[in-house]
Q: What sequence folds into this?
């Protein structure tokens, strides 16, 4: 914990004074343009990956960057989506998966999650992505990256079931994006619906 406490002290004494005008503005409200839904994995830092400042991303994190279909349960992800789209009026939603995702590994082998039943129930929201990957590669040939990509596409489709998102999509004033962050290389690939594939966002 001391490392965290020292970090807070440095943030307060060095970072805040350097960006005082920004923090003064943020102290009275927020108006982010992007809802960034990503995994809770400790290796994922949305602000670092996108090089954004505080106030620019409304971040929602959970195991496997899951978007539960609307109506299945009332939980934090659903509430965050509704608030971001209906109240904050974000103009973009990014669903961002990542390589070496433990949640997707669990969806690929749910029998390994018997000792952690709440996790098993949660990653069941990604099981259809594994089935989609199997349909592409053949049963028994699913690789982690393909399942991860299919999971991003699946969660993007789940967004359509949320009334606040559906209304904005119908009005044409919000865009949904699917990304996969490649931890080792730092690359980010984005879903291209025309080719049903992922391509580097920097190309």
A:
């Amino acid at each position: 914990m001391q490392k965290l406490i020292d970090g807070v002290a440095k943030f307060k004494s060095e970072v805040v004074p350097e960006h005082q005008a920004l923090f003064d503005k943020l102290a009275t409200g927020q108006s982010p343009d992007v809802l960034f839904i990503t995994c809770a994995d400790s290796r994922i830092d949305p602000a670092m990956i996108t090089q954004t400042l505080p106030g620019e991303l409304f971040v929602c994190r959970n195991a496997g960057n899951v978007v539960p279909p609307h109506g299945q349960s009332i939980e934090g992800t659903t509430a965050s989506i509704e608030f971001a789209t209906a109240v904050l009026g974000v103009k973009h939603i990014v669903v961002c998966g990542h390589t070496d995702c433990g949640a997707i590994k669990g969806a690929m082998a749910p029998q390994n999650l018997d000792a952690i039943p709440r996790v098993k129930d949660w990653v069941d929201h990604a099981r259809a992505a594994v089935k989609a990957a199997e349909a592409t590669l053949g049963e028994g040939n699913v690789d982690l990256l393909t399942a991860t990509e299919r999971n991003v596409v699946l969660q993007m489709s789940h967004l359509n079931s949320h009334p606040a998102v559906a209304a904005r999509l119908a009005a044409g004033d919000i865009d949904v994006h699917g990304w996969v962050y490649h931890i080792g290389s730092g690359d980010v690939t984005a879903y291209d619906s025309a080719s049903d594939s992922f391509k580097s966002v920097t190309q």
The mean pLDDT is 95. The chain is about 45% helix and 15% strand. The radius of gyration is 18 Å. Strands lie at 34-39, 57-62, 92-98, 175-181, 188-192, 197-200.
